[in-house]
Write a structure and sequence with these properties.
undecaprenyl-phosphate 4-deoxy-4-formamido-L-arabinose transferase activity, EC 2.4.2.53, 9 helices, Spore Coat Polysaccharide Biosynthesis Protein SpsA, Chain A, alpha/beta, globular, about 15% strand, transferase, seven-stranded mixed sheet, about 40% helix
Length: about 250
């Protein structure tokens, strides 16, 4: 805990057998109270590795629900456990768990309700091996999103995020997509609800075992991201209404 706030790390997993242990072992248990592993019907031994590591809360999907569907289960379980701060950490070891301290202290001390680990602040993305086309797409999408949503984030596409329970209860993330665009929908909902978002510089790693999506899925994601930002813009100026911005 920090300031009597219960901290839970959620691990949305799909075929993370080879990297789960390394990720788990770097979680700072001096402040982290609970770990939740949600397995999206992996075809490897992700669940067995989680059990061997002694993870108490393991949620197994009977069908593959997708990246967004996995996160919904993560946050629902974290709130069920009465968590005060929830950190979403990919178990593929692409993001270092060593930033959990910094991200959680920002929330626990009442500075911000949401903190992102940004690969774009500094040189973390390219230095860590992010493909150049993904870097360029990241920058262009982020520019468009900042213009449409009136914000100044360095990136909207990081998978390393920490939230207060207050934020998770104040947005209806369960109506969001089960696909990768879920992440962007959440950020749009958070901004629409009036919250500000902090960012910390995050090194990242690209390697064979790290999760990634192919060019076709990336293109679909990019179109979806722009759609979310346009929906935000249109609702803000009052010419349309979208269910993702309704209060839960």
């Amino acid at each position: 805990m920090i300031n009597n706030k219960k901290i839970t790390v959620v691990l949305p997993a799909y075929n993370a057998e080879q990297t789960l242990e390394q990720t788990y072992n770097e979680i700072p248990f001096d402040i982290v109270d609970e770990v939740i592993l949600v397995d999206d019907r992996s075809s490897d031994k992700t669940v067995e590795v989680g059990q061997q590591l002694g993870i108490r809360h393991i949620v197994k999907h009977d069908i593959n629900k997708g990246y967004g569907g996995n996160q919904k289960s993560c946050y629902n379980k974290a709130l069920e456990l009465n968590s005060d701060i929830v950190v979403m950490l990919h178990p593929d070891y692409q993001y270092t768990p060593k930033l959990i301290h910094s991200m959680c202290y920002i929330i626990a001390n009442g500075l911000y309700e949401v903190v992102l680990g940004s690969r774009i602040l500094g040189k973390g993305a390219l230095k860590g091996g992010m493909p150049w086309y993904k870097y360029v797409a990241n920058r262009l999408l982020t520019l468009a999103q900042n213009i449409l949503m009136g914000q100044k984030l360095s990136e909207y596409h990081t998978g390393y995020r920490a939230f207060s329970a207050k934020v998770l209860k104040d947005i209806d993330y369960n109506v969001n997509s089960d696909d990768f665009v879920f992440d962007n929908q959440m950020l749009a909902q958070i901004f629409f609800a009036g919250y500000e978002i902090a960012e910390v510089t995050c090194p990242t790693k690209y390697f064979d075992e790290a999760s990634s999506i192919n060019l076709a899925r990336s293109s679909k994601y990019g179109i979806g991201v722009l759609g979310v930002s346009l929906a935000y813009f249109f609702q803000k100026i009052g010419i349309a209404r979208f269910k993702i911005f309704r209060k839960p």
